[in-house]
Amino acid sequence: MSEETVSGDFLNLENAAPVADNDPPHALEAVYDIPVTVSAVLGHATMQVSQLLKLGRGAVVELDKKVGEAIDIYVNNRLIARGEVVMVDESRLGVTMTEIIKSEKAN
C-alpha cells in the first residue's frame, strides 16, 4: 500500500453532506482504505536529560497512571477512547476499548 499526498480541493470535506446514522454503510466506503495511526498510551513521565542519560537496562520509569487505571487510545494523535490492556496471545498485547470519547466540534 502506498501513501499519496492529496492537495487542493480534491478532498474537501468541509462542504460534504453529513453522514446520518440511517445512511447505508457504503456512504463511507471512500475513506475505508485511508491508513491511520492508532496509539495506546500507558502513561507519561517528565524527567531531566541528565536523569534520562542515567537510565540503563532494567531501569524503571514511573508513569503518571496507576495500575488498573484506563489507558488513553489515540487515532492520529486525537484522543478517541479509553481502554484496558489485554493479552492477545502468549507474546502479544492488545487494547480493549471501555469508553468512547465524544469530541465536541468547535464552530
From TrEMBL:
Subcellular location(s) of the protein: Cell membrane; Bacterial flagellum basal body
Membrane topology: Peripheral membrane protein
Keywords, comma-separated and alphabetical: Bacterial flagellum, Cell membrane, Cell projection, Chemotaxis, Cilium, Flagellar rotation, Flagellum, Membrane
Name of one Pfam family that matches: FliMN_C
Domain Flagellar motor switch protein FliN-like C-terminal: 30-101
Superkingdom in the source lineage: Bacteria
Function of the molecule: FliN is one of three proteins (FliG, FliN, FliM) that form the rotor-mounted switch complex (C ring), located at the base of the basal body. This complex interacts with the CheY and CheZ chemotaxis proteins, in addition to contacting components of the motor that determine the direction of flagellar rotation.
PANTHER family (UniProt xref): FLAGELLAR MOTOR SWITCH PROTEIN FLIN, PTHR43484
Family according to the record: Belongs to the FliN/MopA/SpaO family.
Name assigned to this protein: Flagellar motor switch protein FliN
